[in-house]
Amino acid sequence: MLAGSANKSLDSIINNTENNKNLSFDFNTKAIDSLLLIQAPIEEVYKAMGMNADAGWFSKVWYSQILKFYKEQDLGTVLKSMLDATPIALFVLLPIFALLLKVFYWRKGRYAYHLVFTFYFFAFLFIVFNALLIADFIIDVPGWIDFLIILSTFIYLYIALKRFYEQGWFLSLIKSGIITFVFLSMVLPIALIALGMISFMFY
User: pTM, whole model, 2 decimals?
Assistant: First the structure.
């Protein structure tokens, strides 16, 4: 039931972004259309898109994906590819979050000790956000309830850090706040950008 509801919600999001033909590109689309119409060599198409003649492997793959996306103009496919890669992103974020804990609790044990806490905390996040996803699929959950649920994850982290590392309430509050801020403002955006690029490169 969990997977089925999540898939239905995902399909709904993707369907709302499919077949969007009003996207803008930073190259001359008319020139590209003309080259594609006469079936010009792919190198000429890439050159018209702005690729340098001495471009390396990465640039060629990048322009190849841009051209593929231009032909399809299907945001839903890219979004689905990105969501499919989310478990990989979580797998990468786990050790990074554990590393943050190691920095703030460097006297509290080896890295594996912090990794155990991270596994439990991310499992909690997974359960909460999946439940929220299902609830949003079934009923229209008010925004203030969504906010309270998200806030509860911080409160859970605060209490969990206090009990797991056995430090004072005030010190745990400061550390949980800094860890959350660093993770959400630096680590998570970088991970999302990287995930988006990887998904775009291989969709």
Answer: 0.61
